[in-house]
Structure formats: C-alpha cells, structure tokens
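pinned: reference chain
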Amino acid sequence: MNALQSSVSVDDDMEFKLPNLPVCLDAHPFNYAFAVGCVDGSVRLLHLESDNQNRTISQRWRKRYKAAVRGCKFAVDGNSLYVVSKNLALCQQDLQTGSKMRCIQIAHNHAPYSLYPIDQHLIATGDENGICKIWDWRLDRKPAVAEFRECIDFVSDFVCDVAKTTLLFTSGDATLTAVDLRTMKPICQSEEMHTELLSLVIAMQGKRVLCSSGNGYLEVFNWDQWGTIVERVDTGHQDSVEDLCLLDDRLLASASLDGSVRITHLCPNRFITVLAAHDSGVVALASTHDRRILASCGHDHKILFNDFDPEAFKLLKKRDPEQRERRITDKSQLQRKQFFRHMICKED
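pinned: its structure tokens
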C-alpha cells in the first residue's frame, strides 16, 4: 500500500456519499485509510489525501459480498482487512487489491454481528444469538480455539486491554462479559443493565470501562470489577448511543441515532461540543491513528470527516478563564470556544 503524507486535514464539510446504508466503519492503524461496509454487501477502501491544500477522498477499491456486511476491521499490522457478513462468513481481504486471502464460509451458525482483531493472530467474533468465538488465524484446520455462550442476545462490541490478557464484550442482553485470553475461560459477567449495551472503550489509563447503551447513557465499570457499574454518565443524546471512540484518555466521542456526534470530557464528566451532525442516525465512528480526524457514518448514507485537535479541548480543563483565552491564538478557535462555553454553562 502506498504511504500517505504524515498529516492530512479536512474541510469542515468534507464528506463521502454512499449509494447504500453503511453499517460499519474502521480506520487504518498507520495511515489515512478507512474501510466501510454496507447493507448491500459492499466493502470500500477509502483514502484521504492532501496535495498543496487540495484535499480529496479517493476510493481505492470496492468488493461485494453475497449478504450484508456486519463488521469490518483492519488487521493489527495494517496489511489486510477482516470482514464478517450476514451469510455467516469470516474473510480476510488484501488491502492492495481487495481480493480475498482467506475465507471461513460458515464461521457461526447464526449471522455474525461483530468483529475484533485481538492481535496479529487472534480474532474475536460475535453473532446474533450471543455466541462469541476466538479464532487463531495461524491454524489452517479448526482455527476456532474458544467459544463462549454466556450471552443470550447479539454480541455488539469488543475491546481488549493493552497486555492482551482480558477480552471484554457487550451484548444486547444488557451485560458485559470478561474473558481471560490466557486460559480462554470466562472471568465474570455483569448483572443486567437498564437496556442493551452497544459499544465499549477502555479509558483513564485502563482504570475505567465505558459502555454505551440504548437509552443514551454510559454505563461505567471499574477495571477488574465487572459485576456492576460504579457510575452512569448522561451523554446528552436523545436516542441510543450506537458507537464510542476514545480521542484522548479523557475525551470521548459518541455517535447516536439522534443524528449527532458529541464530545464528552470524562472525570469530571462534562459535555464539550457537538462535533458533527448527520441528517439521520449515526451508526459508527472511526478515528485516524493520530486522532486528528474523526469519521462518522449514518443513515443519511454519508461519511463525514471532521478535524479534531485534542489540545484545543484540553484548554477547557484550565480553571482560569483569562489564562485559557490567552493560550488560544486562533481567533476562530476563541470564538468557537466562547460559544460552546456558553452552552456548557446552560447545561450545568
């Protein structure tokens, strides 16, 4: 794959229009590439490129599956793309050409719902009936090395700690499940929350796990205390929070069916701004490797690309308002900050 420039920025209204409803979105671990899967079974590889201030989004390739795509994730090494589709398949695609490198035709007995590359060899998948499987991609025969049946509804999302010892996954049955990857045995399953859990991230230097839910709140767990939550955070969304993306250790982006992408500061919990607005529900988020661009896709068949500067939002943490304003040199940034500070005061 051709390497892109080290830094790419986008216009505020930069978007990519899709002919079909997008379902999943992922960002490349090393460059400015995005993969998007749609309900018609298509998978696209997109690139953001910048040349003398001319910014473009190019489609490198498009491939089609026989059924709706349910999940697409770049491999940890960035050399391939994993895809699960409604026709039960788990496949690996080459990034240069989009051609299939390997495909397990029947990965689950029920339609897969989620996908997560744990490391260079292990992959986790979940299906509509709550079954989670761990795959070892080094094995040609019987690559499924573990199976977990703790959940009774769809497995919605996965996340793993930095040490790659604990895998967490959320479910439509409103539970969080923890699995020990060394023994391939379950550790604990939480009590049922108020509603389905849809996405999760690890934040605050690995001390907290945040799960999005169908009622717009975040269910917060302490690490290693999976039985019940320690806190609930109101995101301000008016509908379910479909996806989460950690932009900084304490800055969280959330996507909702209310059509907005909101930025929330964690501990103290504080709404900061609406970063993007779609014409209808937002279903997926993905951030570039440098956290400078946040992409969102939704029911309006659009992928929106938004510039994001974590340092600008960190200024809001300072206690002295005059000191904060002196440190913002860009007049447009200052005007934007003052506007959103007024919004924050109104919400408080």
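why pinned: Residues 1-9, 323-332, 337-348 have pLDDT under 50 and may be disordered. The domain at 20-311 is CATH 2.130.10.10 (Methylamine Dehydrogenase; Chain H).
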